[in-house]
Amino acid sequence: MVDKRKKTKEKFSLIQRVTEKATTEEAHGVYTFTLSGLANKKEIAARVRQDFKVTPIKIHIVNLPKKSVTIMGRRGTRGGAVKALVYLKQGDKITHSVPIKK
């Protein structure tokens, strides 16, 4: 039996969220990313270590639900995302929203 997780292992990306709340949390060592694709906490931690050269202490994953909307008499949905909160130890920083390539 083929493990489906191994096929989709590298099919996610971390996109840094730039909001007022996320910016204020960066001062406390908490960085907020939007996930595109499926990933678990271990895969996110490995990607942060690889791309930004820092080690996260803990990671929280938050599912943002889709919202129902009605546009021109038709029902639909908008939004919906997965957000990852990455906690770093005191003194570590992520200074680039784009991963460092060496």
Automatic annotation (TrEMBL):
Keywords: Ribonucleoprotein, Ribosomal protein. GO terms for cellular component: ribonucleoprotein complex; ribosome. GO terms for biological process: translation. The keyword Ribonucleoprotein applies. One of its GO terms (molecular function) is structural constituent of ribosome. Belongs to the universal ribosomal protein uL23 family. This is 50S ribosomal protein L23. It comes from Candidatus Nomurabacteria bacterium RIFCSPLOWO2_02_FULL_42_17.
